[in-house]
Structure formats: structure tokens, C-alpha cells
Amino acid sequence: MWAAGEAALTGVCRCNNVHMCAWCGSRILAVRAGNAQAMADGLAANGYGLHLGTSTLRHFARMPFGSNRKRQRFGLVRLLHDGWRGAYGSSGRPWRRLKAEFGVIGYERAYEDTWGPDTGHHLHWHTLWVTAEPLDTDGQLEFRRAIATAWADGVPNAGGYEVSQTCDRPDCSCGGEGHGTDLRSLNSGEEGETARYLYKDGDKGTAKIGLELSRQDLKDGRRSGRLGPWQLGDAAADELLASGGVPGPFTTAYRERERGIFGVRKQYRTQGLNALVKSLEIPQHERTEDEITDESGGLQPILVIPSGTWYRTVARVPGRRVDLVKVAESGVGGRRLLIESWGLRWGIDVFDPPAEPTTEPRRVRAEVDPLLELPAARTFAEHIHRVRRRQLAAKN
């Protein structure tokens, strides 16, 4: 599919994996970031309090990433989820206290993780807490301590190390409250003031709440030597290339994360907060992940590649998909030269697009050989079994 200056592949399978796929993940997270920012702006304009928090675990390089799979739950990812459930579960006493004392309506929570060779996997939550109204200075401090106390109780109860609750470093940003929980009240001043949250590395100016919650793909690790998921993937690929395919520490960490991230929810919004957003008629994109990653909108077809040709000649050869998109972006003229340079024949292996849109039903039914309309006598698997039986019979 093509339009001036852009191109996309359609009709191919998409994984829609926000954790591992840079292609699908960046597109899905961009929409979620827009939703989070629109929600924050709308809530602030209606006088609600916004508080951006971070909940972290004490971790060491020897601790495994783990898994959240059913009957296989262990490691840091299991601890992160169980610690949250124990601290802020909707049926627990801490949650009821937060609602009663501070007017907490709900939260939107986002998962993030980084990795460093010295510290191992670092998993944490970013959370936008929403209160019925902005809190004053004393209320902010009490709210932070209530959040921190609940987290400090929930993590050890889930089997983890005690989280940091004190700090003796001079002039530390935590104010001596420790680094297990961070909470910043974003609009404690006048109603409708939309907050801005500084990026961690300090060289990107200010960033919106939606970016902080959702766009881990645009962030760097807080400390030098700590890598985000995409950076870790790049490091693992470079490592394998340099070592001739022998996995090293980067590859091992990437594969450990690849297995353990299965089933982890990237972003979650409580039902109470979601109901409030709908009642205030704050606009939200409600497209499915398939609709988000489908880039065919506004594009016209310029080339049809049958599935057999696609898998044999394009998908299995590194770089060809990117080459095809890049050539199409610069115009339709070079597409045939590129296709034929791969040894494919125009009109036999690949085709011009149909004159009519394939999404519209045809008014006149095309003539089809009656033989093709008969149901298949055997499935593909049955064909394989029959061939194997004939081969065994021939040997005997």
C-alpha cells in the first residue's frame, strides 16, 4: 500500500506485542499515551487531583526476571504483581483507607522494566492516582506516606525484600522518605492546571503525562549502563553478531525477559476511573490493537504478493521487508526493479493490484471451475500421513 511519502504492508500477520515488538509496540503505545494524556487533561480541567507515582522493588543481579504464567509464577515479575495486589487490592484495607481519607477515585497503572549488568532486572510500576480534588501540601505528604506504607507492607508479604523507606543522602529528591515509592502531586495549585513531568535524564525538556505512563520505548534508563527493552534487544543482536551466534549476558537477559513477559499487562485503568472518564465525556480512542497496527488507512494498493512468494522470498530473507517499504515510500517506480532483482517474475510471482477494491463485494459472481467448488477431500495433514505411509510401505 502506498501514498505520497509513506508505505505499509497489509494482509500480513501482526503480533501486537507491546513488550517485545518495536513495530507494533510503538504504535499501540502511542495511542495509549494519547488516551492517558487526554484523560489527565480532562480530569485536571474538571478539578480532580492528579498524582504521578512510582513503585519499585529492591533487586539484585542474581534475582531472576521470573514468570507470571499460571502454575509457573516466580521471580521479580511475580513479586511485582503480588506486591501490588497486597498493597492496593480493591478488597484490602489499605485501598479502602485511601478512598476514605484521600478521596482516591482510581488509578491508571503502567508496567516498565530495565536491565543493567550490575543490578539485573529492574521492574516497577508507574501510576497516575486520581483524587476527588487536588491535595494541599500536608495532604500530599500524608498521601505519599500512606501509599509508601501500603507498598512497604505488600512487598514483604509477597515474599520480597523490604523496600526503601529512608534515605540519608544529603539533598536527595526523596526528602529522606526512601526510594521504594515516589509520588508527585501534579496539580496542587489552581484547578485546571495541566501538569508537566520532567524526564529522568533531564535533557529532553518537559514531557507529558501520557509519555511518562506509556512510552517506555522513548525513554532511557535512569542510570548509565541500564537498558530499556528495545536497547537490550539491540545489544543482544549486536552481541550475537560479534560472537558468531554464541549468547552472552545481553542475549541471556533478553531471552529471560522474552519468556517472562508473557501475560504481563502493560497498562491498566480501574473501573471507577474509567467510569468517571466516560461520564465526563473525555474523548478516548477505542480502537482495537489490530486496528491500531493496521496502517492501510488512506493508502492505495500498488503490489500484490501471494503468500507462497511472500514466505519463500521476502519474509525469510532479512532486510527485504524493509527494502520493499523504503522503495515504495520513495515512489512506485522502483518497485518492479526491486522485485525483479530478487529473481521474481512480474505477472507470475507478483501481480499488479486489482482494478477494484478487494474489500467491496463483487456485483457479478466470477465463473469458477466446478471442480474448485468441491470440498477438499483431505486436509493437508492427511496428505502428509498418506505420503509417509506410502514411503514406509515402499521400504518394506
TrEMBL record:
Keywords noted in UniProt: Plasmid
Protein name per Swiss-Prot or TrEMBL: Rep protein
